[in-house]
Each structure stands twice: as structure tokens, then as C-alpha cells.
Amino acid sequence: MSKLSYRQVHLDFHTPVLPFKLGKNFNKETFQKTLKDAHVNSVTLTGRCHHGHIYYQTKLPARHPQMEGDFLMEQVDACHEIGINAPIYLTVGWDAFSADKHPDWLERKPDGSMYGFQDYGQLSPGWKTLCFNTPYLNYLKTQIIDTMEHFGSKLDGLFFDIVWQDECCCNYCIEKMVSRNLDPENTDERQLFAKMTEKYLKDEIYKTVHTLNPECPIFFNEGNILPSIQSNLEEYSHLEIESLPSGEWGYQHFPTVVRYAKNLGKEYVGMTGKFHKVWADFGSYKNSAALEYETFLALAHGAKCSIGDQMYPDGTLQPATYNLIGSVYKEVEKLEQYNENTRALTEIAIVHPGVIMDSDTKVDFSLAGAVNMLKEAHCQFDIVDLQMDWNKYSIVVLPDKIIMNDEIKLKIASYLENTNGKILATYQSGLDEKKQFLPAWEVTYFGENVYNPTYGQYCSFLEKQLPKGEIVLHGQGLLVKSAQSHVLGAEYCPMYQRNYQHYYSHFQAPVSEASGYVVSSQSERVIYFSHPLFEMYKVHGVQQYKQMILAALKEMLGHMFIETNVPTTGEIILNHKCDKQELVLNILHYIPQRKAIELDTIEDVIPLKDIYVKLNIDKIENKLGYQIGDIKQVNDVRNNYKLKFKQQERSLEFQVPKVNGYQIITINYERTV
Ligand SMILES: [Zn+2]
Predict the structure, then answer these.
(1) pTM for this structure?
(2) Which residues sit with Cβ closer than 5 angstroms to ligand 1, an ion?
(3) Which residues belong to any copy of the Beta-galactosidase trimerisation domain (predicted)?
């Protein structure tokens, strides 16, 4: 049952002390008309911002000093009057008002300096991060109760922002760590304590809200959704994937995170922004093709949409912004029904590296490489953690660094025992703490490779996909051996490892002779590559690394769900309508371009013509658990046109004449009992 609105605006309002009355030009009718005309049906409004200011009538001293009346209540009432949902945003980790009044409430690094956002020193303008082991937590809870009591039954939900704890060395944290027998001088123990604090913080906020209103929707935003969310997952009513592609998230983030988030059993929202850059880039308007792509991709993945904006201090919304949002949301309103109440039809699971270790980057490079390879080949796949069911996938991919612990070993043993599924593993995946590979791998570990880069020479099915001759492997690999019958590729060393004594031309020395080690091997259930091919693809973009992985997947799967001539720049997402006999095929074609030194955007929609699609019905039936009978209709939704199709024994083929950015094809079938 869907509860979240499809066309949301996340309306920031981080407003410092002003030389005029806050919201002096707010006009209820204009505000309502602007939102209505832009097809918006939910607005997240600001209750307390990063300046620490509160925007409703409160006795708390942080009430915005230039506010007269009850500004937030006016906005909430204006929204409710026209049937628009109005959840409230409350800052958590950044609050300049509290930071200035109580510097002892700030997080501290081991050297006593602060944590914060961008430029945040004593004489700098950025946000400083507060610590939740200080009395700030009590203030936070008091302020949440204050908001809930003030809005009472008008409260549509709470969005908590900046919900994380860094490894902190403030006096409070040191005292608490010592009392729990944790060592503040040990980085690992500081990180552990930070994770414990984060869990405690969410528990405390949840209890505070739940005591007053058990039905109040809650989301905790940390700018990412990682497997660590599992420890508090039951406290989230839904998920919001903050992912502004022109900001630090890039175009890599959303397509990755949504494939994990959609398996967490909650409704989810894809949140982008209307700004050209990131939040609060006032006077900028995202290219409409980019905004289209970002919202349509959310729809295709079964998500609701949210577009970020910021209200001006005088209480106005900008017409150009809402013309832009409206132009996209008008289309979203027409299209949102097609992927509503669907589930993704997927045959491959990628195990999230976050089950083993945190990443230094917003998206782990090995995960990013895996997503890119499979997405470019139009594979249908999910990203899973250790709590999720692996048995429903034909292949489990363990990218680069899934080092075995007892929990993962059990998970893999159960998968191999209970399914006919196969495993594709690279580099350290499958290796345990004793430096032994799991028996199913049938490879033996001989240490780290001394050559980087080195070369591989491939045989069997890999040979057919790759250029004749050696392929350079740009990455640190492992030395492994396997039975001759299992070898898919042999290592050929370079003439020497490049160093001050021996160097050759500009880069690595050319290939020399076989080392006796293997770079790829195949056992009954596992195909293994000794190099981190996924991260190497993300870092170097060598097409052959992708070809190796795709050839291995094909070898293990036979044919996949979808065969098509859609180029690598296109995306295909196949869903199944839960309450109908209908498949929903989403095809997107938008190409992000590096137009600026630090950001990608999309300016043009480049149409695709004469798209061929073949669905392998037998594979899809396996996933659905029943047989598909006659295909009744194949509909081109955006052109309102029935497509001709050919149903063979176990496949369905059709041509889509044109994909202009985003196309939805619905396929209605009879179910054979
Ligand atoms: Zn602290």
C-alpha cells in the first residue's frame, strides 16, 4: 500500500539573522498556486535549520529572531488546505546556534580541532558538527517534542537530517569510552564507539517521537544508504535517497544505492535537486534533460520523486524554479502509475562491500564498477547484504573485497547447498582470515602478486570475447593456482616491475613469460578472477575487464532475461506489476557529460531508434514461479501505441520505434495455470 507522495519538493530554509522580517513577502495564495501549478503533492518544510533557527512559535531561544507570527504553521496550513502533504525537516548534526552557544557540544578530532562541512574553522563560514554524547542530545529531544506538540495532529512526518557521528574525542566521548572499556587512543575502537553512538542516537530520537505519536513517519538522513542501516531499520518508516548528481554523489550514486535500498522492504524516494550544482546554488536551474532523467530513473526503479529547492528569506518561491519542476512533474504525474506497486525482476545479486568494510568514497569503487558493467550490458540485478535472501538469484557476484568471515561463509554454504546458483568472485572475495579460499573456489592462494600491472592470456570461452594476445591488468592481484582443467587465464609477467633500476618506455614493461599462476579459473560453481576487475573498470575503464565479467556471467547463466541492441549509454529496468499479469520494461537514454571541471550534467536528449528487445520468457518464468501463457499486448505507453510482437516458444520479441529519453513498454500476458 503506497503512502508516500510521488511528486515531492524538499524545501530547504537555512536562514541566518536577517535585516528584515522573515517571510515578509509570503503570500498564501501565491505559495499554493505555485505548488499546484508545478504538480507538487508533498513539500518537506523546514522546522529547524542548520543555523539552528526554529520557524514556528516556540519558547525555545532559537526561534528565528526576525520571525513574527507562526511562519511554519502558515505554510503547513496553506499546504493542507489544498491537499498537499507537509512533513517537517529538523536538523540534527549541524546547528550553528547550539554550536556558538556551547562549543563544548562540538565533535572533536584527536588533535582537538572540529568536524564540519567544507570550510568550517573558527573564522570560517561552514557548519560545525555536534556530538551526541554531549548535553546537546537532551536539547535535540526537547526540540523534537516541542515541534510535535506544536503541530499535533497536523504533523505529516519528520525528516531528520545529518544523522551521523564521527569518531569523536570530545571530553564527553573520552569519558564514555573509558567507562565502557574502550580505548580512545585506538582508531578502530573510536570508530566502533561512533557507530554505537549513531545507533543510540537513532534509538533515542525514535523513542522520543514514538512515545508522542507512534504513527509519525520518520526518516534519518545521512546522505547515503549503506548496509549499516540494518541496525536501526525498523525505526525508519520509509527511505529517502539523497542523491544530487551534480554534487558529491555524481551520476554513479543513485543507480547504485537504489538497487540496494529497494530490497530493504520500505517505500523509497529518490531525492535530487533543482540547482545546477548542489544545495543552495541560488539563481541556478538544472538543465531540464538532467532533471527529467533523475526523476524518470527514480520512477523506473519503483521510487517516488523528490526535488530539492530552498525558499528565499522573504518567503517566496521562484517562478523559474517551479516552471522547471512543473515541466517534469507534469510528465511524472502521467507516468507514475506504471511502476507503482511493482517489483524488480532480477537474476543477479551483487553483494554490497559495506557488509565487510566502510568505503572512503560515497560509492565504493568495486561496487561502482560492478554496477556499471552490469548496467551497461542491461543485466537485471540487485545489490544485497547479509540479511537479504540470496537464494532467489541465479548468480551471486562477490566484488573484489568480500573477505570471508563466519557469517558470510554460512551464507555462501547455504546458497550453494539450497540452489543451483553460481558465484562470480574477484580478487580477495572468497579468501578467509587464514588466507585460504573456500573449497568451492578450487584455487590455492600463494600471496600478493609482485607485478602491478601484470598480464593475462585467456583461453576457453574468455578467449572468444577478447583481443588475441595478452591483456594488461592494471591493479594489485593475488597469486593463485588451480588444476589445469579449471584454468581460464594464465598470468604472463612483464619483463620486470618498473622501478628505478629497470624501466621501459613510458609505463609498464612489455609481456615476458608465463609465471605459472592463473588469473582466472572455473570450478563447478565458481568463476574466479585474481584481480579486482570491478574496481579496475571503475578506475581505468578498460573494456576488456567488462568483457571478461560479462562472458563469465553468460557462461554461467546461458541467456539472460533481456537481449537488445540498446547501447551501453542506455538503461533497462524490468519490473513486474504485483497485482496484474503485466511486465513493465523501462528504457532510458540520457548521457551525462563532463561539461565542467568538477561536475557532470545532461543537456540534450538523444533519441534511440528501432530498438530491438527480446525477453527470454523461460528465465522470467523461473523468477515469477509460474508459467506465462499467451502474450496479449505490448504497449508503447508514451506514444499510446500497440507494438507488433512475435512470441516464440519461450521468448518474446518486439521493436520499439523510438525512445525519446524515457520509454515505458507494458507487456500483458495470460497466466498458465
Ligand atoms: Zn564527542
Answers:
(1) 0.97
(2) 131, 133, 168, 170, 173
(3) 374-436
